């Protein structure tokens, strides 16, 4: 059932991805020069505020950006060595669901309300596996059991399940064809903390069982720490810092990343007020010149105002897009302090 066991290298290689939404009065620059890789069996977190471009990037990976108004302006997306940007409509339909699966944050809008959950899982299997309906329903029963739902509920409809159970159904649909890549868009944001932990543990276990690579989109740093191998901090359509989870959580380098970590309550920190980043993320239709974070950054220089830094390796695979990268952490601050 595994699909990437023993493979080395990257399942996904994204280079300078640019996605815009072209409106009548303005152009929303949702993703601006996004570049990253994802290894076989690896989990990468996209962390950032609402509107940072996380979901648009994920939709772009499957060429599902709604057009109009969305437009894939430029860049390259290589999935298992295949150039997604040049794939035909038929090739893309074969990839979606079978090779790349997507879990949304709202199961009620993702599930068909007039089809039983068993039929929805079986439909996915029939579309992508070539199995008969009888075999597909057997596969649906197996997947429901894997996500902790009794097979007797195959004939039940989405409204008959709780929020956490509906999310389990979505996970079953997404993994029914053993995809090589799973994209989860804040899959637990609508769930309470207890159910959230159960769903995350389920996803981790099934990811390991199927040896699936995963992109986890979240604004919760705790979820990123618990489930991901690497973390990419996204701001205004760009990755500003990316590193393995331990390195990023112990020594964040970008002022924005440091601000995110300093805004989290800590048991060992006896303060009445948390640090807060001043201002708001810029309007993607009116991004400032230079580094998009410089209007909110206490360390911004003229260089930051004039030009945007590229993402560079500052050591051991720790990538940083900041003109302060040549300075000591003590000049900027650090989450380790």
Topology (elements, then pairings):
Layout: E1 10-22, E2 27-39, E3 43-47, H1 54-61, E4 70-79, E5 82-83, H2 89-95, E6 100-103, H3 107-110, H4 117-129, H5 133-146, H6 163-175, E7 181-185, H7 193-210, E8 213-218, H8 221-227, E9 230-235, E10 238-244, H9 245-250, H10 255-262, H11 302-306, E11 312-313, E12 319-320, H12 329-332
Parallel strand pairs: 3-8, 3-9, 6-7, 7-8
Antiparallel strand pairs: 1-2, 1-4, 4-5, 9-10, 10-12, 11-12
3D architecture notes:
This protein is an alpha/beta fold. The protein folds into two domains: 41-62 and 87-228, 3-Layer(aba) Sandwich (Rossmann fold), CATH 3.40.50.300; 245-332, no CATH class. Helix content is 32%, strand content 22%. It has twelve helices and twelve strands. It has helices at residues 54-61, 89-95, 107-110, 117-129, 133-146, 163-175, 193-210, 221-227, 245-250, 255-262, 302-306, 329-332; strands at residues 10-22, 27-39, 43-47, 70-79, 82-83, 100-103, 181-185, 213-218, 230-235, 238-244, 312-313, 319-320. The strands form two sheets. It has an eight-stranded mixed beta sheet with strand order 6-7-8-3-9-10-12-11, with helices on both faces. A hairpin with a 2-residue loop joins β4 (70-79) and β5. α4 (117-129) packs across α5 (133-146). The longest helix has 18 residues, at 193-210. The termini are far apart. The model has no long low-confidence stretch (mean pLDDT 87).
Summarize the structure.
The chain is of the alpha/beta class and 337 residues long. The protein is built from 12 helices and 12 strands. The strands form 2 sheets. Strands 6-7-8-3-9-10-12-11 form an 8-stranded mixed β-sheet, sandwiched between helices. The chain has a 4-stranded antiparallel β-sheet with strand order 2-1-4-5, with helices on one face.
